[in-house]
Amino acid sequence: MNNGIPLTTLERFPDYLNYLRDLGCGDDDKISSGVIAKALGLGEVLVRKDLACTGCAGKPRVGYVVRDLIAALEGALRCDTRKNAVIVGVGGLGSALLAYGGFSKYGIDIVAGFDIDPAKQTEENGKPVLPMEYLSDGVKKYGAALAVICVPASAAQGVCDALVDSGITGILTFAPATLRADSRISVRHMDVAANLAILASGII
Amino acid sequence: MNNGIPLTTLERFPDYLNYLRDLGCGDDDKISSGVIAKALGLGEVLVRKDLACTGCAGKPRVGYVVRDLIAALEGALRCDTRKNAVIVGVGGLGSALLAYGGFSKYGIDIVAGFDIDPAKQTEENGKPVLPMEYLSDGVKKYGAALAVICVPASAAQGVCDALVDSGITGILTFAPATLRADSRISVRHMDVAANLAILASGII
After folding, report:
1. Close Cβ partners of A45 (under 8 Å, ≥ 6 residues apart)
2. Which H helix or E strand runs over A28?
């Protein structure tokens, strides 16, 4: 359970990881917290605190061994643990996520989609799109613990309930709706329109 | 510029707004901070502090007038100000966003897409998809201040630079890459895979 790493810290780990991976460093290359801080637009003290949570120690006047830091971040984000996820709602967004290759670097496999529309119940990018009636069986068959909700807001709570009943314990939802779920279920909300509105309210 | 509302507070406003709008209340209906807090899984003190930032005052033992609270949240999120946005990269995700109707409730109009692929330079959902060469002209023509980057990570910085050169001041990016931009430019990052990984690291 995150090894006690605060969520706000964990949320910055993918940024560190993307940045460090993109450097394309060799085995012994080192980097200082100051350089990382500047590149990511963060405070240096914060960066040092964040990275201390990975268990990878930097050395004064030397910095961090980039390779070790990448491994520590990957460990904290469980990139080496295979995790299966399903997508519910295979419209434009769900279909794009079924085809997206970027999940594998975190050890996540999108194994199947589910949709109520028979026209969509075929295959997308080699992945089966199944009827909603098979949700529970499919989640068990594929050993999925994670789900992504891409249905309209009005259908999101019903889908959330069905996912929890099927044994899903982590839900990422794109639906602009408040989801109620047992406190043991982790729910993260990505609302594209809301994020654009927050951005706009700061500049206009 | 947000009227001094802290970003973390502003980020919760769409959740309050979705919740209150979905209640379908009449003109005089009232709601207490406690009810809102419970529905959204937040602390009641936090909810009171957040809502105080909207300028809408609740009354002891009466609560907030739901309609007034909705109007105040809409004001803080500038829902009544029309804002034009462009999408760069009309693959699966970009195409889904061009078709998505959920932006209008925040006063945001997605006016055009841009893509380097001539095959995609047609129209999606009645919106023109233009060649990248027209980015600068298009941004000016449509009076767009906002852009959504849906290109692969390797192309994201180049697109970001071109957007800034064209006059865009708010950028929402889905590319898993660290973007460098002038501090006057607001950048928000939505990394779907990273969000699913953060979710997974808490439950597995």
Report:
1. none
2. none
Could you read off the pLDDT of B22-63 as tens digits, one per residue?
898 888 899 999 999 999 989 999 999 999 999 998 888 889
Nearest residue to B56 via CA among B79, B38, B31: B31
Distance from CA of A145 to the nearest CA of B (A): 8
CA dist A117 and A108 (Å) reads: 26
- Distance, in Å, from the CA atom of B171 to the CA atom of B168, rounded to the nearest integer, reads 7
> Are A115 and A127 within 8 A, CB to CB?
no
CB contact under 8 A, A91 and B96: yes
CA distance B136 to chain A (A): 19
Token duo for residue B204: 């597995």
Q: What are phi and psi of A28, to 5 degrees?
A: -105, 5
Q: Residue A201 is nearest to which of B2, B15, B100, comparing CB atoms?
A: B2
Query: What does chain A come to in residues?
Result: 204
A95 neighbourhood in chain B, CB within 8 Å = 92, 96
pTM of the model: 0.90
Distances (CA, A) of B12 to A6, A110, A154, B9: 19, 29, 20, 5
Rounded to whole angstroms, the Cα distance separating A80 from A70 reads 12
Q: Rounded to a whole number, what is the largest CA-CA distance in chain A?
A: 62
